[in-house]
Amino acid sequence: MADRAEWESATRRQRQLAVAADAELRRRHPGQYFAPLRSAEPEPATGAERAERAELTITAGEETAEMGQWMKDLAAGRRTFADRLADRQNVKIPSEDPDYGDLGQAFPAWTGPGREPILQPPKPEIPPSPRILERVTDRDADWEAAD
User: 10 near 88, Cβ under 8 Å?
Assistant: First the structure.
């Protein structure tokens, strides 16, 4: 789960951009067919695959079996994933001036929206037109006459 959370935070911006680009493409070309977006995640395990990996089922009182080849492959895949993710997070944007250094991370982690309020200048006060002021004055006079 830690790998999944790390991947989620590292790729959030790119995934959101992909979805936004897909939506914009479909909006601009409403009559054209585009294949739906699909996840790169592997398909869930079938019943046969689960039965094949029976060593994952642990029952109370039974002795745990030797770690199967599937588990070893899974651990190796996790190490490969962690290495690729670390390499991706270390990519820097080079500066045009070689003496200046780099411009920062190419794929920064998404920090999420800020919690502070957005500061905005006050709206300018718009004075009412003389015609509106005249109508309000007439209305107030009618109310006073009714009393």
Answer: yes
Element (H, E) at 93: strand 92-94
Specify the pLDDT at position 33. 92
The dihedral over CA atoms of 131, 137, 140, 141, expressed in degrees to the nearest 10, equals: -120
Residue 8: strand, helix, or coil: helix
- The predicted-structure confidence for 29-75, as pLDDT tens digits, reads as follows 999 999 988 877 777 777 777 676 665 566 676 666 666 677 788 78
Sequence-distant (6+) residues with CB within 8 A of 109 are 9, 10, 89
- pTM to 2 decimals? 0.38
Cα gap 70→53, rounded to integer Å: 8
